Amino acid sequence: MTATLTVAVWKGDADGGFVEHDVPQRANQTVLDVVSHIQRELDPALSYRFACRVGMCGSCAMRVNGVSRWTCRTHVDKVARDGRLTIQPLANLPIVKDLVTDMAPFFDKWERAEGPFVPSETRPADDDFAVVEPAGKQRSWADAAQECIGCGVCYSSCDVVSWNPEYLGPAALNRAWVQMNDERDGGRPARLRAVSGDAGCHACHSQQSCTLRCPMELDPASSIAGLKRLSFKAALRGKL
């Protein structure tokens, strides 16, 4: 006899609800495999996102038993409780349909945090490349934080975003920290002002959920703490 999972999947928009399905349980089965089985065999109208299936793109992020995860890397035998799974869209984002969220507010906050690189000078075409010393302290801080791929898991896991929708969130602030430590960047003063307001780094309660849940094993909480230090020093010097 093949074992079965009872899977409750969110259907509809924010006013929707859970629909239960019985899904065959298989060896080495991921949660994304479960969702794909439901869509292919039981509910062709189920909407969800995925792309690479190998833990590189982050587009398959959902909540599994209440925890935000990449479903392609989450094995059923690690998370199923008494043969049951609950699968929902990411939290803190508008639901488009079923397991699909609108990521626009998430990326809009990267822009509000002045996330894009701002060139500090234009070099003549025949000039050598500017050299950034890889062993420098600031470069090491930037390198440790720059591998974010924008999956939204930290944002979905952040209670402060739930309480204060205006809060910039861990990913946007982590990106700002990367740019603040790039010696080539010319937008640092404006960026520091952008992340030092009421909805910026000082709104973080340091609960560490972002660091705990980051699939890339980054430490957004430390990045936010770094922004708090820079903001404090700038305020003491009268530069904010």
Task: Please describe the topology of this protein.
Blueprint: E1 4-11, E2 17-24, H1 31-42, E3 61-64, E4 67-70, H2 76-79, E5 84-88, E6 95-97, E7 100-101, H3 104-112, H4 137-145, H5 153-157, H6 159-163, H7 170-180, H8 188-195, H9 209-213, H10 220-236
Parallel strand pairs: 1-5
Antiparallel strand pairs: 1-2, 3-4, 3-5, 6-7
Helix pairs in contact: 3-7, 4-7, 7-8, 7-10
How would you describe this structure to a colleague?
The chain is an alpha+beta fold. The chain folds into two domains: 4-101, Beta-grasp domain (Ubiquitin-like (UB roll), Roll); 104-236, Fumarate Reductase Iron-sulfur Protein, Chain B, domain 2 (Orthogonal Bundle). The chain contains ten helices and seven strands.
For the largest beta-sheet, the strand count, sense and barrel status come to: 5 strands, mixed
Spans of 5+ residues with little confidence (pLDDT < 50)? Answer: none
Overall CATH architecture of the largest domain: Orthogonal Bundle
Q: Whole-Å distance between the termini?
A: 67 Å
Mean pLDDT: 94
What is the total number of structural domains? 2
Helix percent band? 25-40%
Strand order of the largest sheet: 2-1-5-3-4
Oligomer: single chain
CATH homologous superfamily placement of the largest domain: Alpha-helical ferredoxin
Per the principal axes of the C-alpha atoms, what is the gross shape?
elongated
Class from secondary-structure proportions: alpha+beta
Pathway: Carbohydrate metabolism; tricarboxylic acid cycle; fumarate from succinate (bacterial route): step 1/1
Cofactor: [4Fe-4S] cluster; [3Fe-4S] cluster; [2Fe-2S] cluster
Protein name: Succinate dehydrogenase iron-sulfur subunit
Keywords: 2Fe-2S, 3Fe-4S, 4Fe-4S, Iron, Iron-sulfur, Metal-binding, Oxidoreductase
